Every structure is written in structure tokens, then in C-alpha cells.
Amino acid sequence: MTSNTAQQDAAVADKSILANSAYADGRHLAARQSIYRWQQPQYDLPGIVVEELAATSGIVLDVGCGNGKFVSRLHKDRPDLQAVGMDISAGILADVEKPVLVSDAQALPFADNSVDAVLALHMLYHVGDIVATIKELARILRPGGVLIASTNSDIDKRELDQLWSKAAGDVLGIPEGGPARVSLSSRFSLEKACGYLGTAFKDIRVRELPGTIEITDPAPIAAHLASYEAWADECGVPFRETVSRAAEVAAGAIASNGSFKITCLGGILMCRL
Ligand SMILES: C[S@@+](CC[C@H](N)C(=O)[O-])C[C@H]1O[C@@H](n2cnc3c(N)ncnc32)[C@H](O)[C@@H]1O
């Protein structure tokens, strides 16, 4: 588990970094999503969301929809719903199926009690005021509506944290390891999520999604680490050099052990008022 400095936490929630760099387009998000190709068991996250919305009709707002993975599945599997993609980044919305809107989750342009379901998938750790945003999501939900949120555990992908620290130590000449990797999800990790969501929602059901990624090629590992480039200034180590060194270390582990294993723990939370 890595824990961020206050400066790193501020950068993870910095709207300018998010909209203009980290998610200016879908490139970095796609690199992070693609590593799950090697995970066992495989989870069809859009399929789980469709399943959880079986009893829902009307408007579904995907807050922080990113590259539209969930919106496009809803359009395909549930054409009866009005699925709307929303993100703080206009750039990442360019290829997302319409209707979409650029907005901040902290001030949604929707009336009270006007939406039947809200998705906030792997995005609440990026908002400045997590409690106020959850209150805002609850405000627009109709009575009986559902919020589906998701995030990662503090122990998710800990082998990548160790790999980063080893590589950073090698780059800086610190044998016991260099600065920890910036953590995206720690502000709203699976361990913290129920506490936050419980400030506005009474009924919360958690579905944990444990798995193991086993990779025999260092390239997707390097691509995953490189996808944090927007936060390079907060790493305390030359970023690209550290990614290259991590790829070498991962290649060495693959040569010795046959593969590089990454333990994953994500979770999806179904919340009702
Ligand atoms: C890790 S991505 C998740 C994308 C998508 N929900 C998924 O699970 O594949 C986080 C997304 O949240 C968006 N985001 C971050 N802060 C936001 C905010 N305050 N309001 C709206 N969207 C935001 C980012 O631009 C990014 O597209």
C-alpha cells in the first residue's frame, strides 16, 4: 500500500491536471484498462453494471465516464435507457457515444430527483470534496434510484508499488528503495468507500472483485506505470527513467520466474438512499 503526501493528493484531484493532461484523451486510461486483459478471473464490469440496472428505467448518468466503456455498453444492451456520459474532460468525450456533457461532478447541471441511476466508476478519488460530491450525486437521484460506484483497495496491485519503489531506488541510488508510487485510489479506496458513501446513502452493498494478473511481457507493465505521467512532477524521481528501469526489473523477474504476478482487488458498490 502506498500513501500519498498532501501534495500528491492535491495533484490527484487537480482539475487542470485531470482535464488537460491525465484524461485529455483516452490514451493513459486505455493503458491502465488494458492490463486487465491478463487478469484471472475476468470480470465483465460493464456487464455487472447492466445486471445491476435490470430494474432501472429512465435516465442513467455516467459521471466521469472517461472513454465511454460503460456508456457504450448501456446503449447496446439497454437501448430503452437514456444513458448520458459526463466528464470534466472535453477531450476524452470526443469519441464517446452521444449524448455527452462536460461538467464537474461537484456541481451537476441536473435538477433534484431527476435521474434514475448514477454511475461514479473509478472517479470519486479524483474529486476535490468527496463528501460534497456524494451529496450532489444523491441530490439528483430520484427516490428509489441507485448509485453504482467503484474503486480499488489499498492493497490493489501492490507488486507494482514495490516494483516502482525498487526502480526509483535504483535510479536515485537508494538501495532500500526510492519514493513510493503516486496512488490514485487511496483518497477513496475500497476500505474508505463505505464510510464516505454512508454520509448520504443508507443501503450499501459491496461486491469485491479479487484477481491476479500474470504477465510474461514487461511492456504492458511499463505502459501501466507510464500512464501516471500527468503526475510525474509529484514522483520525486525522474519519471521516464524510472519507468524504463521498472521495465528492466520486470523483465528480469519474468526471466527468472516465468511471469510477473500482480494481485488485484477492486470493488463495486451499489448504494440506495
Ligand atoms: C479513472 S477514469 C474512470 C473512467 C470510467 N468511469 C471508467 O471506470 O472506465 C476517471 C474519470 O473521471 C473524470 N473526472 C475526474 N474528476 C472529475 C470531476 N470532478 N467531474 C467529472 N469527471 C471527473 C476524469 O476526467 C476521468 O475521465
TrEMBL record:
Gene3D superfamilies for the chain: Vaccinia Virus protein VP39 (3.40.50.150)
Alphabetized UniProt keyword annotations: Methyltransferase, Transferase
EC number: 2.1.1.-
Transport as UniProt keyword: no
Pfam family, one: Methyltransf_11
Uppermost EC category: transferase
Gene Ontology annotations of biological process type: methylation
Methyltransferase type domain span: 61-148
Claim: 4Fe-4S is one of the keywords in the record: no
One GO molecular-function entry: methyltransferase activity
InterPro entries: Methyltransf_11, SAM-dependent_MTases_sf
Taxonomic superkingdom: Bacteria
Name of the protein: Class I SAM-dependent methyltransferase
